[in-house]
């Protein structure tokens, strides 16, 4: 997979994208991360990438020319891959979007900065806009890294065989059950008996119920969307007072 990132701060990606799973995927050539500084594509001699907003107001606006020129120089005049603008105005980035992006051989991420990007970038260059949450960051770089991490771990061969992503579609709609490892007793705190029982069916049932409980308590919005079995529903009904 080829991931193209258009940013004013390519150095921000070096550390995080060199480590751990993404680093391994890049080293193993499962992913190529192409970092493009769109300042290099600014046409004037000062390489200006921002300007004041028409109509006035605070902050600066990323100019359209450098971004259009950079994307067209790298991906051609009529790119066919997804071109995603990271912005707090975008659709919320969720597991389903990561799964969709993981299917493409190539996609591009545009990182805005300052007060925002010129609207023509949204309208005529980006194919979609994503937000990683309801807060405003200083730029699209951290959100781009979040998207890359979430997508890359889904690519075949990136996770070890131990760490399956098969349950991720569940993870998208139900929170995970509690996890424990050795020792079984730590500072007086016990690992739940069922996990030590070796009874795989009982363990699976316990995990499912814990996931349902946790989701009901912390994210009832997700529970409303979840695919629930008859058994799940009976369990949840049994909890009602
Ligand atoms: N740029 C600034 N804040 C952002 C956010 N929350 N999501 C995506 N891009 C952003």
Q: How many beta-strand elements? A: 9
- Topology order in helix (H) and strand (E) letters: EHHEEEHEHEHEHHEEHHHH
* Ligands present: adenine
Mean pLDDT: 94
* 3D shape: elongated
Q: Rg to the nearest angstrom?
A: 22 Å
What is the CATH architecture annotation of the largest domain?
A: 3-Layer(aba) Sandwich
Structural class: alpha/beta
Fold and architecture overview:
The protein is 39% helix and 17% strand. By secondary structure, it is of the alpha/beta class. The protein folds into two domains: 2-152, Alpha/beta knot, CATH 3.40.1280.10; 167-237, Trp Operon Repressor, Chain A, CATH 1.10.1270. The N and C termini lie far apart (51 Å). It has helices at residues 14-18, 20-27, 64-75, 95-101, 119-124, 141-152, 168-173, 193-196, 200-218, 220-225, 230-239, and strands spanning 2-7, 32-37, 50-51, 61-62, 83-92, 106-111, 128-131, 185-186, 189-190. It is built from eleven helices and nine strands. The strands form three sheets. It has a five-stranded parallel sheet. The relative contact order is 0.13. The site of adenine (ADE) has 11 residues, from strand 5.
């Amino acid at each position: 997979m080829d991931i193209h990132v258009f940013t004013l701060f390519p150095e921000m990606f070096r550390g995080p994208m060199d480590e751990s799973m993404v680093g391994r995927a890049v080293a193993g050539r499962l992913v190529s991360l192409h970092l493009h500084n769109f300042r290099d594509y600014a046409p004037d001699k000062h390489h200006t990438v921002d300007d004041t907003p028409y109509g006035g107001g605070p902050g600066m606006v990323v100019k359209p020319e450098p971004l259009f020129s950079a994307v067209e120089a790298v991906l051609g005049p009529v790119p066919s891959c997804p071109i995603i603008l990271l912005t707090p105005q975008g659709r919320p980035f969720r597991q389903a979007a990561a799964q969709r992006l993981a299917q493409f051989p190539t996609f591009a991420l545009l990182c805005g900065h300052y007060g925002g990007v010129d609207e023509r970038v949204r309208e005529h260059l980006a194919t979609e806009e994503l937000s990683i949450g309801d807060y405003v960051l200083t730029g699209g770089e951290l959100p781009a890294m979040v998207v890359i991490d979430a997508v890359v771990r889904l690519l075949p061969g990136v996770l070890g065989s131990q760490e399956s992503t098969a349950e991720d579609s569940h993870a998208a709609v139900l929170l995970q059950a509690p996890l424990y490892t050795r020792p079984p007793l730590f500072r007086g705190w016990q690992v739940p008996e069922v996990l030590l029982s070796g009874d795989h069916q009982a363990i699976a049932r316990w995990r499912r119920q814990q996931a349902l409980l946790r989701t009901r308590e912390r994210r009832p919005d997700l529970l409303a969307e979840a695919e629930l079995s008859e058994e799940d529903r009976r369990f949840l009904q049994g909890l009602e007072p």
